[in-house]
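testing teh design pipeline on a random one, pls ignore if ur not involved
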């Protein structure tokens, strides 16, 4: 046994420090503050993106005809709204088709950045719209309904995929996805031809990023739940390709 010599008044504090350090080592260091959502992000979706329209082209790139609700599970109440829509007033509808339930389907470009450690910002050149994805549980919806509503965001862990039509040599392993739930919306349109969604709409989205064929891709799986104007959940999957910079950024307002 090692013998500690010297003044007992000086040795005792040293022994206490050694004992405390030993206990700390056994129990582990005290937990520090949890990482911010920005620091904890399992995937990086920031940057410049352009929509790639490979499906629903005739509804997304062209003005749909009156009454065309193809692929949308419209309810009887929603069908009445569609039939009552006046094409002559399409321009006056302004931003009704640019709310959160439809804006990601609009052809255009996105800028995604961190506004702060708890808030992701998505800017869209289509209609000059901006969405704020709030990770902080302390944030609450405002008393006023808006086109983009209130979006509560969280990171979700997911297993490494084994399919999706992309080989593992092309796509790096994914460790998480971004889940966003949006409420507090103003009534708007799912399409420019007056296909409606109501204020009761609940929008759930999953943002994911992968690399394939020499490019980075962003996919957004969207589920629209509206007990008033839809007979069942409306699902879409929208794709974006990363751009090197914002040189093609060309925002245009959604007003008349």
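output:
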């Amino acid at each position: 046994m090692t013998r500690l010599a010297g003044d007992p008044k000086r040795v005792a504090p040293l022994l206490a420090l050694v004992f405390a350090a030993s206990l700390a080592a056994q129990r582990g260091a005290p937990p520090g503050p949890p990482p911010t959502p920005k620091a904890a992000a399992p995937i990086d979706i920031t940057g410049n993106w352009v929509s790639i329209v490979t499906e629903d082209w005739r509804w997304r790139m062209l003005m749909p005809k009156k009454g065309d609700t193809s692929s949308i599970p419209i309810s009887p109440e929603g069908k009445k709204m569609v039939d009552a829509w006046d094409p002559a007033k399409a321009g006056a509808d302004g931003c009704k088709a640019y709310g959160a339930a439809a804006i990601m389907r609009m052809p255009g470009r996105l800028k995604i950045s961190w506004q702060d450690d708890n808030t992701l910002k998505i800017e869209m050149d289509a209609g000059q719209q901006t969405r704020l994805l709030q990770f902080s549980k302390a944030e609450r919806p405002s008393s006023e309904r808006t086109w983009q509503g209130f979006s509560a965001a969280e990171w979700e862990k997911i297993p490494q995929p084994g399919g999706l039509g992309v080989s593992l040599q092309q796509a790096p392993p994914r460790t998480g996805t971004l889940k966003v739930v949006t409420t507090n919306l103003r009534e708007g349109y799912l399409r420019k031809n007056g296909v409606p969604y109501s204020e009761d709409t609940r929008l759930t989205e999953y943002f994911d990023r992968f690399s394939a064929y020499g490019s980075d891709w962003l996919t957004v799986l969207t589920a629209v739940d509206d007990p008033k104007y839809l007979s069942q959940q409306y699902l879409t999957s929208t794709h974006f390709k990363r751009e090197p910079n914002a040189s093609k950024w060309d925002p245009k307002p959604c007003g008349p």
